[in-house]
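Good morning C.,

I know you're traveling, so I'll keep this short. The sequence:
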Amino acid sequence: MVNSYTDAKGVYRNKLGITDAVQLQRVEYDITSRRSREILEQKVLAHVHGYGLARQQAIHQHLFQDVYEWAGKLRTVPSSKRMAGGMTSVFADPGTVEESWQALEQKTSAFVNAKQLTFEQKRTALVDIFIEANHLHPFPEGNGRSLQVFMKELASEQGVELDYSKTNAQEWNRASALSGVHGPLFEGQYLIANPSDPEPIKKIFAAIASPA
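The tokens, ready to paste straight into the viewer:
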């Protein structure tokens, strides 16, 4: 879909002047992988406190600062993504993102400060937070990568390690989509929503989460 963030071919306008979607994706992933390590290993965002929208924006800005002018800035347009099987995943209206993140931050704060949680309780809380945060999808692009970093940092607060190498992009994206608002489009524009199914993402977190 053409919008203020993309060109006529649907490629995101970028600082690198790349106009081919495949090339942009490859370069983008190389850059954000390095930037992700800076956050997780070098603690370059140690000055950011709490686990609210400000942290998510700081993570996104750091990951994509070399690629997009709008890195770390909230999207201003509706967001949806095609799924396999003709389904479409639809994310929160941009006007609701900030208020919804304020409510979500209460959950992240409660998680960080909770005492004597069992490992199962920690994992359940992480899944719940992930599902809500993923539906909000605050940025035009790069939500998955920034949220993975966010969740890894959050999990570590309660001694939980998330190892994303134990899943793959196809499984992860499908499970993430099924946990949110999704379904077929009637006449290409009206969503016929299916019931949200959190079970696939729960199974993935069961596989990737372990005591640190």
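Safe travels,
E.
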